[in-house]
């Protein structure tokens, strides 16, 4: 078990290394002078010089890389070229809306999708199954900003149940927080529900064809026992896997959702940085989100070991 | 006996996969028709609308639907219908381009990693790294640094799709390698390139067709997101995402600027996804067997 | 043989015992409504208390479907019983509600399956899995249940029951898992036990233990046993009565003695005639002194498992294996699973690289040749695999498959294809099969095609790795005859890997018995199999099911004195 744990953690290091290298090369390998790219066409030589020094672009490539990694390892993610504020500080100021949306989407999706998937697999081939599958393919296909605007049109503009856009911190009361977070959560949950319901159904169908499910039935156990005690636990591994890999999708979704609902989160921060070519911020955001992704998947790897005794060596 | 449980007759005969699945159920038939209509309307956009999608007519800003402008005009007085029709061209081009490119590159990486252990160790770490980066963030970063053109957007969208294709091909190759018929080929003295081409590659065709449709759907979506965020192809070019991005400011005045392109976008992606599902059911005997209840 | 004897002592009063299972004119059809093809067409069977009825048949005979129908476990959307009745202690289970069926399962009827490796839930302790039966069907308290389970686990002769109670299935061997399945099935003392090929996936020595266990428990509890099998040896060891099935119909039923000694139907006679005898065939005379074509010298294969802590674990899959094979002769390697017999075969064909020792093929050392330098020598040794469904590429024609080898070695395509047609005729298939695809052929036919493909390179040695193990016994007999015939005609040497001593006894000139990666005994088949010197070989022979019977001649071995007539 300990060996497995250490192996998984060690395996995550090269992945982050690849991410870091890629992010680093992104600017350096782009054709043209990196400083000119960042500063735009109308930059003066002085501005270019300032950017070059700030990013260390005058040094050899490998020196740049190692000193950058060295600073990263010491918690220095860089400083914005525009506002001169450390990126970490910018992120911490704007993390709450993003985190609120991401967590509530995850929670809502799992609560809705897993039961849907189980029922679809159990009632395989019936109208319930077809309904769930149809819902999931629609969830996959309709972009989150389209769903978002439809929801706004109906619930905020026509029915006037909730405010159109914006965010209010949970620390300033749950009511205002909730009525502003509910629409973004629902909009973004569609695709996640589709993903998880689909995988739950497929995994359950696989497991329901296994010999041990037949054994369970031969024991005279009722259907709910067969489904929950025998099938679901075995189907859990692929479902949890997809929750983890789907996290990348969730991050992309948060970026879009924040734009639609005008939430002042890190997604907006990133988009603004991209539009302003604030490279240190872009770099740091990709690194941070990848780091979160890798960590979540690491936790999921460890969850496998708890769910499936065959993984504990 | 062991044989009892094996599925009979497995795979395609000489004609290969047929296109019959495109009309397998009414819903898939509708999807096929919808996609065909979208493709045709994009190709024949100049004939379907007499307006120039990029012509600015400041006097006609945000006009409602009329017989002259079927869907009205946008904030710069451009014909919305014409822009939507022309926008389909970009979306479909991106979808097709991303599918073809990511599959070609992914197939190569997957085949090589499935066969050479040392390449595999390196390539899969690189693929893991690429998958760890959220595709939209990666794409907007690439586009913003290298300038927004059709090519850079295509590249930015294709890169995150490659690992998925490569992993798929690799897993197919790894499992096919264990098949006794591949071992038989080795003992018959067949060379490695020939084994790859004749015995391994054909196994990847069906899953790749399916994966290709999913990549296309996802690429169309990502392109729209890029444009919507303002990090895509330049705003004067008509794309579904651009039309919606411009419509955002006038959403409360004229919601149709978002709904029409959104609807078309959704229908296009939905159709491609449905066709992908149908192709998977038709091409994957394991799935078909499951449908038959084992 | 004593098992068989004991079971027949009470023959006379069996007919007066109460009926436990009565299947009457059962019909099962394909499809949700059963309207499709009938895979069971009018089967009638009876099993009385304390009696073992064997249902025997080849693949596709419908024997498993019969047992699943009884349990009410037919896959709902593909098979349905549409006629007849299945009475379990007088109650028709075909008419029972789902709820009633669930009550009957485990309490009145129970079932054990073929694959012990997959029949248990991998993520639940085995003790808890047995406990589930008690929790579902009784109101016993936790400690009473645990006591009952431990007692049952001891009854099925599991060692160290407290530890095993809290183990996951993957920690247990196949035999132990099957014991758990039996404990689970019998913990509520059901009246009927259905055993569907319960020992087919096990090695012979384990099989013997499991069969003895089932027999003993049956005697203690008076259980009626419906035993599904394809193996006449197993039938001979445990059956009171036998039902022979073919293509969904009942061919004939009768007492064990009647069926084995005086079968009335041709199909039964053919089935019995196809069972190879355990008595080795008379040694073949060697015409002159044949040259050695294949030699293995102290061949070894070590697998190293990397471990994060400590030093890597080494597994010796094969060790010091020395073999000699002459032209025109057949050398058998026999052993149970994990004995290393397949590892040796794959090393010799160089599908895997041996870690030590040498291989001389036609006088040339090939163990240290690189992939490239090996190329000219590959054609001299060819292999036929076990699974006929996976050994041919489903996407290319039979002709392409057979011609692949010769084309690799420079033959012109047209020549190679013409040769493929000849080879198909050599293996008794029509020459026009060249343009067809593998899925159009049965398992036995595919194995013939695989043999033709191997012969296309005119090898000096043919390695058959369990090449007849997946085939029905009648098909197996045909393929064995074909191999024999080809050897006589072409003078090819055959290395025959098998777990089946009966097959080895009928086809091999010499045999090597392997255990734990080593050869424990080797010599002429007639000596090793008739008069084994090593304890392990004797153990293997003792465990072979039906060893008291000479099936093909409808009699017991060495006259019939030890087996009382019915």
Would you write up a description of this structure?
The complex is a heterotrimer of chains A (313), B (294) and C (566). Chain A has 313 residues and is mainly α. Chain A folds into two domains: 17-73, no CATH class; 91-307, MetI-like fold, CATH 1.10.3720.10. Chain A has helices at residues 2-28, 34-39, 45-55, 61-73, 87-122, 127-141, 144-158, 174-208, 211-218, 223-261, 266-275, 279-307. The N and C termini of chain A lie close together (6 Å). Chain B has a single domain, classed as MetI-like (MetI-like fold). Chain B has helices at 26-43, 45-48, 80-115, 117-132, 135-146, 150-177, 180-187, 192-229, 240-247, 256-283, 285-291. Chain C has three domains: 1-108 and 191-274 and 530-566, Rossmann fold (3-Layer(aba) Sandwich); 118-189, no CATH class; 292-304 and 314-526, P-loop containing nucleotide triphosphate hydrolases (Rossmann fold, 3-Layer(aba) Sandwich).
Distance between the termini of chain A: 6 Å
What is the count of DSSP helices of chain B, taking H or I runs of 4+ residues? 11
State Rg of chain A: 23 Å
Helix and strand succession of chain B?
Answer: HHHHHHHHHHH
| CATH superfamily heading of the largest domain in chain A | MetI-like
Largest interface: pair, residues per side:
A-B, 54 and 47 residues
Q: Architecture of the largest domain in chain A, CATH level 2?
A: Orthogonal Bundle
Main sheet overview of chain A: none
Subcellular location (chain B): Cell membrane
Keywords (chain B): Cell membrane, Membrane, Transmembrane, Transmembrane helix, Transport
Protein name (chain B): Peptide ABC transporter permease
Membrane topology (chain B): Multi-pass membrane protein
Which helices and strands, and how do they pair?
The complex is a heterotrimer of chains A (313), B (294) and C (566).
Chain A: H1 2-28, H2 34-39, H3 45-55, H4 61-73, H5 87-122, H6 127-141, H7 144-158, H8 174-208, H9 211-218, H10 223-261, H11 266-275, H12 279-307
Chain B: H1 26-43, H2 45-48, H3 80-115, H4 117-132, H5 135-146, H6 150-177, H7 180-187, H8 192-229, H9 240-247, H10 256-283, H11 285-291
Chain C: H1 2-7, H2 11-14, E1 19-30, E2 38-48, E3 52-56, H3 63-71, E4 79-88, E5 91-92, H4 98-104, E6 109-112, H5 116-119, H6 126-137, H7 142-155, H8 161-165, H9 174-186, E7 192-196, H10 204-221, E8 224-229, H11 232-238, E9 241-246, E10 249-255, H12 256-261, H13 266-273, E11 292-305, E12 313-326, E13 330-334, H14 341-348, E14 356-361, E15 364-365, H15 371-378, E16 381-384, H16 398-408, H17 413-426, H18 443-455, E17 461-465, H19 473-490, E18 493-498, H20 501-507, E19 510-515, E20 518-524, H21 525-528, H22 535-543, E21 549-550, E22 555-556
Parallel strand pairs in C: 3-8, 3-9, 6-7, 7-8, 13-18, 13-19, 16-17, 17-18
Antiparallel strand pairs in C: 1-2, 1-4, 4-5, 9-10, 11-12, 11-14, 14-15, 19-20, 21-22
Helix pairs in contact in C: 6-7, 6-9, 7-9, 9-10, 10-22, 16-17, 16-18, 17-18
């Amino acid at each position: 078990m300990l060996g497995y744990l250490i192996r998984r953690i060690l395996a995550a290091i090269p992945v982050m290394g690849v991410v870091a290298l890629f992010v680093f090369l992104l600017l350096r390998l782009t054709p043209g002078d990196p400083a000119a790219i960042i500063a735009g066409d109308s930059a003066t030589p002085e501005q270019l010089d300032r950017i070059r020094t700030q990013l260390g672009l005058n040094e050899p490539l490998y020196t740049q890389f190692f000193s950058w990694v060295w600073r990263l390892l010491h918690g220095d993610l860089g400083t914005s070229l525009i506002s001169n504020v450390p990126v970490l500080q910018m992120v911490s100021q704007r993390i709450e809306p993003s985190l609120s949306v991401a967590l509530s989407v995850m929670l809502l999706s799992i609560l809705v999708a897993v039961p849907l998937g189980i029922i679809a697999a159990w009632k395989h081939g019936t109208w319930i199954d077809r309904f769930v599958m149809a819902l999931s393919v629609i969830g996959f296909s309709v972009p989150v900003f389209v769903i978002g605007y439809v929801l706004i049109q109906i619930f905020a503009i026509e029915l006037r149940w909730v405010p159109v856009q914006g965010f209010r911190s949970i620390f300033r009361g749950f009511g205002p927080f909730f009525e502003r977070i509910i629409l973004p959560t629902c909009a973004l949950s569609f695709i996640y529900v589709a993903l998880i319901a689909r995988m739950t159904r497929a995994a359950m169908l696989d497991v329901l064809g296994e010999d041990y499910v037949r054994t369970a039935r031969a024991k005279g156990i009722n259907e709910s026992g067969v489904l929950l005690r025998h099938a679901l636990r075995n189907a859990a591994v692929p479902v949890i896997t997809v929750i983890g890999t789907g996290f990348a999708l969730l991050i992309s979704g948060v970026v879009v959702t924040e734009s639609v609902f005008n939430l002042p989160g890190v997604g907006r921060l990133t988009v603004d940085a991209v539009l302003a070519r604030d490279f240190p911020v872009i770099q740091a955001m990709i690194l941070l989100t990848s780091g979160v992704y890798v960590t979540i998947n690491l936790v999921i790897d460890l969850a496998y070991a708890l769910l499936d005794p065959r993984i504990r060596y | 006996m062991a044989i009892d449980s094996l599925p009979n007759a497995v795979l395609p005969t000489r004609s290969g996969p047929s296109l019959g699945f495109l009309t397998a159920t009414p819903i898939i038939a509708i999807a096929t028709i919808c996609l065909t209509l979208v493709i045709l309307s994009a190709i024949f956009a100049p004939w379907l609308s007499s307006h120039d999608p990029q012509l600015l007519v400041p006097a006609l800003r945000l006009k409602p639907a009329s017989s002259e402008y079927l869907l009205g005009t946008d904030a710069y007085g451009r014909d919305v219908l014409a822009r939507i029709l022309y926008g389909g061209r970009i979306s479909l081009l991106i979808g097709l381009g991303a599918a073809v490119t990511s599959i070609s590159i992914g197939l190569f990486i997957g085949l090589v990693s499935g066969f050479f252990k040392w390449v595999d160790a390196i390539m899969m770490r690189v693929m893991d790294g690429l998958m760890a980066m959220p595709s939209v963030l990666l794409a907007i970063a690439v586009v913003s640094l290298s300038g927004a053109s059709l090519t850079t957007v295509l590249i930015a969208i294709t890169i995150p799709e490659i690992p998925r294709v490569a992993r798929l091909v690799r897993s197919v190759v790894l499992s096919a390698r264990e098949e006794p018929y591949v071992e038989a080929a080795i003992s018959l003295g067949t060379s490695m390139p020939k084994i790859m081409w004749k015995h391994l590659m054909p196994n990847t065709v069906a899953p790749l067709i399916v994966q290709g449709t999913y990549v296309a759907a996802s690429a169309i979506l990502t392109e729209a997101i890029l444009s919507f965020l303002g990090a895509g192809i330049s705003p004067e070019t008509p794309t579904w995402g651009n039309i919606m991005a411009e419509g955002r400011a006038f959403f409360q005045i004229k919601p149709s600027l978002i709904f029409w392109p959104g609807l078309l976008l959704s229908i296009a992606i939905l159709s491609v996804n449905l066709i992908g599902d149908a192709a998977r059911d038709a091409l994957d005997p394991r799935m078909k067997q499951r449908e038959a209840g084992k | 043989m004593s098992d068989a004897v004991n079971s027949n002592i009470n023959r006379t009063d069996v007919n007066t015992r109460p009926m436990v299972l009565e299947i009457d004119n059962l019909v099962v059809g394909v499809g949700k409504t059963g309207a499709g093809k009938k895979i069971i067409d009018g089967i009638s069977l009876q099993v009385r208390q304390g009696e073992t009825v064997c249902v025997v048949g080849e693949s596709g005979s419908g024997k498993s479907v019969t047992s699943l129908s009884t349990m009410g476990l037919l896959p709902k959307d593909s098979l349905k019983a549409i006629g007849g009745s299945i009475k379990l202690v007088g109650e028709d289970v075909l008419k029972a509600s789902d709820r009633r069926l669930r009550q009957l399962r485990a309490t009145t009827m129970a079932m054990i399956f073929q694959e012990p490796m997959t029949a248990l839930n991998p993520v639940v302790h085995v003790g808890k899995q047995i406990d589930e039966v008690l929790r579902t069907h009784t109101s016993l308290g936790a400690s009473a249940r645990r006591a009952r389970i431990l007692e049952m686990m001891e009854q099925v002769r599991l060692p160290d029951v407290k530890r095993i109670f809290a183990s996951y299935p993957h920690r247990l061997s196949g035999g132990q898992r099957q014991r758990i399945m039996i404990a689970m099935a019998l913990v509520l003392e059901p009246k009927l036990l259905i055993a569907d090929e319960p020992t087919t996936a096990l090695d012979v020595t384990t099989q013997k233990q499991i069969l003895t266990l089932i027999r003993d428990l049956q005697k203690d509890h008076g259980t009626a046993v419906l035993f599904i099998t394809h193996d006449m040896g197993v039938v001979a060891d445990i059956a009171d009565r036998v039902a022979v099935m073919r293509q969904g119909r009942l061919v004939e039923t009768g007492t064990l003695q009647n069926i084995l000694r005086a079968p009335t139907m041709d199909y039964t006679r053919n089935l019995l005639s196809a069972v190879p005898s355990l008595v080795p065939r008379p040694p073949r005379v060697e015409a002159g002194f044949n040259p050695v074509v294949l030699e293995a010298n102290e061949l070894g294969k070590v697998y190293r498992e990397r471990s994060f802590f400590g030093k890597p674990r080494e597994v010796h899959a094969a060790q010091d294996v020395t073999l000699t094979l002459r032209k025109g002769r057949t050398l058998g390697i026999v052993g149970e699973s994990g004995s290393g017999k397949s590892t040796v075969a794959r090393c010799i064909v160089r599908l895997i690289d041996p870690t030590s020792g040498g291989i001389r093929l036609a006088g040339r050392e090939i163990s240290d040749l690189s992939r490239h330098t090996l190329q000219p020598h590959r054609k001299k040794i060819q292999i036929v695999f076990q699974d006929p469904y996976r050994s041919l590429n489903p996407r290319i024609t039979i002709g392409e498959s057979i011609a692949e080898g010769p084309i690799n070695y420079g033959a012109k395509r047209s020549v190679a294809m013409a040769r493929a047609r000849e080879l198909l005729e050599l293996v008794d298939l029509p020459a026009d099969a060249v343009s067809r695809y593998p899925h159009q052929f049965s398992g036995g036919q595919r194995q013939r095609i695989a043999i033709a493909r191997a012969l296309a390179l005119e090898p000096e040695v043919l390695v058959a790795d369990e090449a007849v193990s997946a085939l029905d016994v009648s098909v197996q007999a045909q393929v064995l005859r074909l191999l024999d015939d080809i050897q006589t005609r072409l003078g090819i040497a055959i290395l025959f890997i098998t777990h089946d001593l009966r097959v080895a006894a009928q086809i091999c000139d010499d045999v090597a018995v392997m255990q734990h990666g080593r050869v424990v005994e080797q010599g002429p088949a007639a000596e090793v199999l008739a008069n084994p010197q090593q304890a392990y070989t004797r153990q293997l022979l003792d465990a072979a099911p039906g060893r008291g019977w000479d099936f093909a001649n409808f009699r017991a071995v060495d006259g019939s004195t030890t087996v009382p007539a019915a």
